[in-house]
Amino acid sequence: MDFSLFVVQLLNGLQLGILLFLLASGLTLTFGIMDFVNLAHGSFYMVGAFICATLTFATGSFIWGVLLAIPLVAVVGLATEWIVIRNLYPRDHLDHVLATFGLILVFDTLVQIVWGPAGIVVPLPAWLDGQVTLPGDIVFPTFRLMIICAGLLIAGGLYYLVNHTRLGMLIRAGASNRTMVGALGIDIKTLFSGVFALGAVLAGIAGMLISPITEASIGMGNEIIITAFVVIIIGGIGSMKGAFAAALLIGLIDTMGRSFLDDIFKIVMSSEAAETAAPAISAMLIYILMAVILAVRPQGLFPPKVR
Amino acid sequence: MTEQIAPKEQSAQSEANTAARRSRRLPPSTLIMAAGLLFLAIVPPLAYFTGNEFWLSIFTRLTILSIAAVSLNLVLGYGGLVSFGHAAFLGLGAYAVGIPVHHAINGEFESIATTNGLFHIPMAVGVCALYALITGAISLRTRGVHFIMITMAFGQMVFFAIVSIETYGGDDGLTIYERSSLPAISLDNPLTLYAVCFVSLLLALYLVHRIVNSRFGMVIRAAKGNEERIRALGFNAYAYRLLAYVISGSMCGYAGALLGNFTTFISPEMMDWTRSGELMFMVILGGAGSLFGPVLGASVFLLLEEVMSDFTIYWHLPFGIMLILAVLFVRGGISGFADRLLGAKRDD
Q1: Which chain B residue's Cα is nearest to A286?
Q2: Which residues pair with A141 in a beta bridge?
Q3: Could you give the ipTM of this predicted complex?
């Protein structure tokens, strides 16, 4: 196994982990504070990617595309909360799941009506499109490195927001006792809308960041949202710290499994058997990990203390 | 939707009332079921003999999906366990037909290579029972939203596992070149296939009816209402639920084996988590916790799919909107609505 390939895959895993964190943080925020399960969270990921694609072509710059798309995704998030989600808070989880499943269908079809059935590849500016050489002669795509940096910055910002600002204090207070926060004169409805929009924006940013690598496509959120669920299950639903740790863990394990599992299997079995078994096992790896962790700790690695 | 049934006392009382009324006249839900089954027994063969084979195939799909929905209803409606991974059972059941047939035609794996339906069906049921036992043992340690997400994740695990196995077509799916061979009957005849599916649906309904009215089913339903109390009474709720989950999974696997024989083409797409969502939609729309509700839900689902997809390629949009509206405004599904409409007094 070649060392530079190993480091490159490590960075790829980190990059996937960062994207997963952007998705999972929104999920865990809305669940933690509002006790709301949002299957349609992946739709914001998709909507973000498509809006960013259109704006990138309109302005001719990916960076402007992202910056202008963020407020638009926030508006989509607020509108969704206002029209549908708000009415669901008092309902049980089953209702949340069904209604947001309906939302997914609505979003997927609306995107298909607006942007057509084909995916859109988002072009990168030249300075992001190349590769950089890192210490140790490791060549890594510039853009992926930028995703990692941007994600870490956002994670840092989120940490500051939740732990060191007044808004963050309200969020934490809301997560431990909603009724009491309301009784203390905080406009809980506005707080909920704000947190929901924040989650939507985070998911949207993840979608914008991935769109130059894969492409903006219909249903792109439906696959990754399950992985984001696995992340928050492993991390402990409602826990920000857990979401971060589990996202990186899942990103790394998934990427490393896909790249190196066949080599590991070849040590113990024939190469033919290894080549058949490895893809299947590596596709299942994160779910097996989830099962093992749940068997030991049903509440996840970092369950929130007060619930 | 659980609130309606949650207070156990009320529900028990309403059951007592229903029982009292039953001596005089049948409750509307029983009448609807009788009418529905009569319809399914008469109309599809009639469609076939009048040359509308297309409609027979729609009804065949309906009965198969109904069996899957009925099986999901056992855990979701009666047990309150929101399983979001039931499409995986459907898929596993179908592949339990597809894989042996594939080997029977293309060689390798002599031990399972057969087109014998008497092997396929126990295989489908057995594999699903085992899968349900393992995943259920883990998922059932958790509650509520955890359970939803974990069953979903396990379903997705099976999806990705099948996608990554190139031998069985991976993403592209697998064509079943020969249907399961059964003694005395041929599934190649569409009418015979329908008859098999219809009888299977009857058996599934009967089985679920017997289960929920047995002592076992009583514990399952009671654990939904108040788990603490059931534990205090000395029942191991976990074990009961696990068994219910295994029964439900096996039944859904059987439906999967039928589905494989019906479509003769299977792909991982049929166990995508959105398929599980559709199954849940059928159960909830039809009325969770009512025996015939899932069949009604499946009928509405297929009708919407057929009618709206003729009308527009964007049929998912009205479908999604309907789903949201149904959750927001319709309680108790079609069965509950029909009960209210037909004047059965409910206590809630």
Answers
A1: B157
A2: A131
A3: 0.82
Contacting residues of B for A280, CB less than 8 Å apart: 161, 164-165
- How many C-beta atoms lie closer than 10 Å to residue A194's C-beta? 18
DSSP string, B294-336: HHHHHHHHHHHHHHHHHH-TTTHHHHHHHHHHHHHH--SHHHH
B314 to chain A: which residues are within 8 Å by CB? 109, 112-113
Round to whole Å and give the CA distance between A65 and A211. Answer: 12
Contact call for A105 and B319, based on CB within 8 A: yes
Could you tell me if residue B348 is inside a domain? no
Q: Where would I find the H helices in chain B? A: 8-22, 28-49, 53-73, 86-106, 117-139, 144-164, 190-212, 215-225, 227-232, 237-263, 273-286, 293-311, 316-329, 333-341
Integer angstrom CA distances of residue B141 from B146, B150, B154: 9, 10, 14
Per cent of chain A over pLDDT 90 is 38
- The domain ranges of chain A are 3-218
pLDDT reading at A1 higher than 70: no
Q: Which residues of B touch A276 (CB under 8 A)?
A: 165-167
Q: List, for residues A69-91, the tens digit of each pLDDT value.
A: 999 999 999 999 999 998 888 88
Chain centre to alpha carbon of residue B315: 23
Is A15 in contact with A147 (CB distance < 8 Å)?
A: yes
DSSP letter for each residue of B120-179: HHHHHHHHHHHHHHHHHHHHTTS-HHHHHHHHHHHHHHHHHHHHH-GGGTGGG-EE--SP
Q: Is A114 on the interface with B (CB under 8 A)?
A: no
Work out the number of other CB atoms within 10 angstroms of the CB of residue B304: 17
Q: Which chain B positions have a beta carbon within 8 Å of A284's beta carbon?
A: 157, 160-161
Question: Could you tell me the two tokens for A8?
Answer: 């490159």
CB within 8 A of B15, min separation 6: which ones? Answer: none
Question: Is residue B144 less than 8 Å (CB to CB) from chain A?
Answer: yes
* CATH code assigned at B45: 1.10.3470
Task: Look at residue B19 and tell me if it is in a domain.
Answer: yes
* C-alpha span between B110 and B123 (Å, rounded): 15
Residues of B in contact with A80 (CB under 8 A): none
**In this structure, is residue B347 part of a structural domain?**
no
B87: distance to nearest CA of chain A, Å? 15
Residue A79: predicted pLDDT: 95
What is the structure's pLDDT at A110? 93
**What three-state secondary structure class fits A87?**
helix
Mutate to test the interface with A, among B75, B84, B327, B329 (most CBs of A within 10 A): B327
Task: Output the pLDDT for position B13.
Answer: 55
In contact, B334 and B296? CB cutoff 8 Å: yes
**Range(s) of the domain holding residue B281:** 8-341
Backbone angles phi, psi at B312, to 5 degrees: -150, 145
Total domains present in chain B: 1
| Confidence label for B346 from pLDDT (cuts 50, 70 and 90) | very low
- Compare all CA atoms of chain B with the CA of A287 and give the residue at the minimum distance: B157
Q: Does A116 touch chain B (CB under 8 A)?
A: no
Is residue B346 one of the residues assigned to a domain? Answer: no
> What's the pLDDT tens digit per position in B270-302?
888 889 988 998 898 888 888 898 999 899 888
Residue type, A198: L
Asked if B309 has any chain A CB less than 8 Å from its own CB, the reply is no
